[in-house]
Design brief:
Elements (H helix, E strand, L loop, with lengths): L1 H5 L9 H16 L3 H18 L12 H10 L15 H11 L6 H14 L1 H4 L1 H4 L3 H18 L1
Helix pairs in contact: 2-3, 3-4
């Protein structure tokens, strides 16, 4: 999502993609028991939503997504992590099934497989830990060097 956002001709930190990235980032931190990081991400996402009132239906979510996020934010410290069951519009699952469902015996088997995969697949659960961070580290070092050069 972040790459799609940055590939837009013009992008701002108020774009709906940022809202979605913050939700996923909150989930990532919450899964790893980083309640402070999760709370920060959810708070920022909800603030963006209040400022811009995004149409979450454009992303394939039902309207109750925002209420679910508010509840999750309020109870982060009280309730252990359980993957959020995003309220996804039927057309999203149907479209995914048309593209990738041929190997499954039924639509139900396909959707159950999706839910299980996103809870247990290490390449999804630990994507951030497993990714190649060389470019990120290099970009941060370049930015630090530029900052140090300005001080001279």
């Amino acid at each position: 999502m972040e790459e799609a956002w940055k590939d837009k001709g013009e992008f701002t930190k108020g774009d709906p993609e940022v809202f979605m990235v913050l939700i996923v980032t909150g989930e990532y931190h919450y899964r790893r028991d980083n309640v402070i990081g999760a709370a920060t991400s959810y708070k920022r996402a909800l603030k963006l939503y209040e400022q811009h009132r995004y149409d979450v239906g454009e992303f394939g979510f039902k309207d109750e997504l925002v209420d679910m996020l508010r509840e999750r934010y309020i109870h982060l410290a009280d309730i252990p992590f359980v993957p959020l069951q995003y309220p996804v519009e039927d057309w999203v699952y149907e479209g995914l099934y048309q593209l990738h469902g041929a190997e499954f015996e039924s639509y139900t088997a396909f959707t159950l497989s999706l839910l299980e995969r996103f809870e247990k697949d290490e390449t999804i659960v630990d994507k951030h830990k497993l990714r190649d961070r060389e470019e990120v580290i290099e970009a941060r070092l370049e930015a630090l060097n530029r900052k140090l050069m300005k001080r001279k």
